[in-house]
């Protein structure tokens, strides 16, 4: 088994890729989804999916920065680095759920689909999960913040 850093070397030295399909073959995950649920207040709720080919879908609900359905593209290097972090810190091996003892908070749900179509789902109610899980959430939020989104369906 090759060392993890060597496996992801081309993502860290910004090497070129033959095509988008070759990227999907080099990473263990085909898509990563972040779902933020509403709370009893003004918490934004949205769902975003990042695909290994550099495309993304966003569905923004109440209080989200973007309201409606959107599509965009992002840098494939960022997907590779996200996959590296997920694999290095064994995010798919974390507990399926974390929670706090209150009823007015939001859940942040991370869904990771590997190349064999296995789904890993971690629900974090009230941001009570480990710091590694929180870091994955923040990396995804940083990636989606850099995407130029095109609206595909407006929600009134």
Explain how this protein is built:
There is one protein chain. With 156 residues, the protein is an alpha+beta fold. The chain has a single domain, classed as Mago nashi protein (2-Layer Sandwich). It has helices spanning 4-7, 9-12, 20-26, 76-88, 131-145, and strands at residues 29-36, 46-51, 55-60, 68-73, 97-98, 107-114, 119-125, 150-153. α4 runs antiparallel to α5 (131-145). The protein is globular, with a radius of gyration of 16 Å. The mean pLDDT is 89.
C-alpha end-to-end distance: 51 Å
Return the structural class: alpha+beta
How do the strands of the widest beta sheet line up side by side?
Answer: 5-7-6-1-2-3-4-8
Number of strand segments:
8
CATH topological fold name: Mago nashi protein
Outline: globular
So, CATH architecture?
Answer: 2-Layer Sandwich
- Number of DSSP helical runs: 5
Portion of residues in beta strands equals 25-35%
Secondary-structure topology with pairs:
Blueprint: H1 4-7, H2 9-12, H3 20-26, E1 29-36, E2 46-51, E3 55-60, E4 68-73, H4 76-88, E5 97-98, E6 107-114, E7 119-125, H5 131-145, E8 150-153
Parallel strand pairs: 5-7
Antiparallel strand pairs: 1-2, 1-6, 2-3, 3-4, 4-8, 6-7
């Amino acid at each position: 088994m090759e060392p993890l850093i060597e496996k992801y070397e081309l993502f860290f030295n910004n090497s070129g890729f033959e095509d988008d399909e070759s990227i999907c073959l080099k990473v263990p995950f085909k898509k990563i989804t972040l779902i933020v649920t509403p709370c009893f207040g003004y918490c934004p709720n949205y769902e975003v999916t990042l695909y290994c080919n550099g495309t993304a879908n966003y569905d923004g609900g109440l209080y989200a920065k973007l309201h409606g359905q959107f599509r965009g593209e992002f840098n494939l290097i960022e997907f590779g680095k996200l996959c590296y972090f997920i694999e290095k810190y064994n995010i798919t091996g974390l507990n399926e759920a974390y929670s706090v003892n209150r009823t007015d908070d939001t859940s942040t749900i991370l869904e990771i689909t590997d190349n064999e179509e296995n789904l890993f789902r971690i629900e974090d109610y009230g941001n009570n999960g480990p710091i590694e899980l929180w870091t994955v959430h923040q990396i995804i939020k940083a990636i989606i913040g850099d995407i130029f989104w095109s609206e595909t369906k407006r929600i009134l």
